[in-house]
Design goal:
CATH topology: GTP Cyclohydrolase I, domain 2
Distance between the termini: 40 Å
Number of strands: 4
CATH superfamily: GTP cyclohydrolase I, C-terminal domain/NADPH-dependent 7-cyano-7-deazaguanine reductase, N-terminal domain
CATH class: Alpha Beta
Strand order of the largest sheet: 1-2-3-4
Shape: elongated
Largest sheet: 4 strands, antiparallel
Number of domains: 1
Strand content: 15-25%
Number of helices: 5
Oligomer: single chain
Radius of gyration: 21 Å
Structural class: alpha+beta
Length: 155
Amino acid sequence: MALDCCDFESLETALFDTRARSSTIRLYMPDKIILRGAQFHGKHGVSPEERIVGGRIIVDVEIEYDLTRAGISDTIEETISYSSVFKVIRALVEETESLLLEGLAQKIAAALLENFPMDAVTVNVRKQPPPIRGVVESAGVEIRRTRVKRLETRD
């Protein structure tokens, strides 16, 4: 069933009428593994004091990965363990130093893409409270990185 971009009746039928569904209709909404509010003590910042004393760093991660097989099999081998993801993040926050939260977020994203078979990752890193005068709950950055797919060439 081909759908016209403005044919809302056909779209509604395709989405909500199970009799009309076929394997040719697939809307892409990525599955996600989510870690929210992981808290660590890290030594990241521009000022020397921040890198000596450190402060609370909070990390949220959304991993895009097809969870169909894990959902069907109900086995840990078919998914990405959020416990393993947490360990990678903890090591980077607690054992490395970055001047900027952007640098820390990039390290986290790169390590997760390198160590796990995900399609993409969104990393949110923030300081709570940030080292600024004024009442601010947190300050941070969010980045999204995707896996680069290499095309094979024939020689």
